Amino acid sequence: MEAIFLAGGFGTRLKPLTYTRAKPLLPILNKPMILYLIDSLPSEVDRVILAVNYKKEQIEKCFSKYDCGREIIINEEPEPLGTGGAVKFAEKYLGDRFFVLNSDIISSINLQDMIRFHERNKATATISLWPVDNVSEFGVAEVGEDGRITGFVEKPKPEDAPSNLINAGAYLLESEVLDYIETGRLVSMEKEIFPQIISNTGRFYGYKFEGYWIDIGRIKSYLYVNQFLLKEKGLDKIIGEDSNVKGDIVNSILGRNVNVGRNTVIKSSVIFDNVSIDDNVTIENSVIGENCRIKENVYINNAVIGDNETIMDGYEIIDTTIWTQPIPEGYPKKQIGNVIGE
Ligand code: GTP
Question: Residue 6 C-alpha to ligand 1 middle, in angstroms?
Answer without folding.
Answer: 7
